[in-house]
From TrEMBL:
Residues 2-100 form the Putative oxidoreductase/dehydrogenase Rossmann-like domain. This is DUF2520 domain-containing protein. The lineage of its organism: Bacteria, Pseudomonadati, Pseudomonadota, Gammaproteobacteria, Moraxellales. InterPro entries: 6-PGluconate_DH-like_C_sf, DUF2520, NAD(P)-bd_dom_sf, OxRdtase/DH_put_Rossmann_dom, TM1727-like_C_sf. It comes from Acinetobacter pollinis. Residues 126-252 form the DUF2520 domain. Keywords: Oxidoreductase.
Length: 262
């Protein structure tokens, strides 16, 4: 399919390369960061558009791969032009109506994955959540999505938002906890990589079992002595931010696993 891409950040970079590898053609690429657009365009053999007006209206899809906050602005800018293409965004948290407000042909292609420029991902394993305003566009979008991944799901905007929220807990918050763990051991000159087998085993169990069924730790055991020991240590080290996170999470675990009164 013939596709134009708006954006040159992490998602745009990964998506553009995946689309080209799958046999599609990135016709044009636009970003207000011209240097980034030129770099990505060279990698996918696309033409850089320096204005929205330069975008070819006679293509299959225009994909908006920018930050969530920028999608309404881009949609409004495109609405002043006449496009025959189906306009897509790649956001997990942005409702489809942000696009249907302006375009009769609109949809969503949301890859449920965390992207970094430094690391490649296996697109065949990435869940792709798709949605369109009209059924005939859904067929075309699903056809394109299947060339990228074998894990395609048709979900509406509310369902997609729930997954995005869950992903924040499962990915962003858990990674911040890894960051806290790294800082704690670094202060005592302890090797953070010693936690790697534990991190991997925990993630593995979370994908194989209901997470609540494999919860472990002092909060689950209601072990107030250990909890106090940890909190005292963080207080002594002036780790007030870590202590606050520790307290909130421990309280939530204790509440979640509180044994019923007999």
């Amino acid at each position: 399919m013939r596709i134009s891409l708006i954006g040159a950040g992490r998602v745009a970079n990964h998506l553009a390369k995946a689309l080209v590898d799958a046999g599609h053609h990135i016709i044009q690429l636009y970003s207000h960061h011209h240097n980034s657009a030129e770099y990505l365009a060279r990698n996918v053999n696309a033409i850089v558009a320096y204005n929205y007006q330069d975008l070819d209206p006679n293509i299959d899809f225009i994909i908006i791969a920018v930050t969530d906050a920028a999608i309404p602005e881009v949609a409004y800018a495109l609405s002043t032009l006449e496009f025959k293409a189906c306009i897509l965004h790649t956001s997990g948290s942005t409702h489809l109506n942000v696009l249907t407000e302006y375009f009769p042909r609109a949809g969503v292609l949301y890859p449920l994955q965390t992207f970094s420029l430094e690391k490649q991902v296996d697109w065949k394993e990435i869940p792709l959540l798709i949605e369109t305003a009209h059924h005939h566009d859904l067929e075309s979008l699903e056809e394109m999505a299947k060339t990228l991944s074998s894990n395609i799901h048709i979900y509406n905007s509310e369902q997609r938002l729930s997954l995005h929220l869950a992903a924040v807990f499962a990915c962003n918050f858990s990674n911040y906890c890894y960051d806290i763990a790294q800082q704690i051991v670094a202060q005592e000159k302890v090797d953070f990589s010693l936690l790697s087998p534990l991190i991997l085993e925990t993630a593995k169990k979370a994908t194989q079992f209901i997470p609540s069924k494999v919860q472990t730790g002092p909060a689950l055991r209601q072990d107030d002595a250990i909890l106090s020991l940890h909190k005292d240590l963080m207080a002594q080290k002036n780790q007030k931010d870590f202590l606050e996170v520790y307290q909130v999470l421990s309280n939530q675990i204790k509440t979640r696993h509180k044994k019923p009164d007999i």
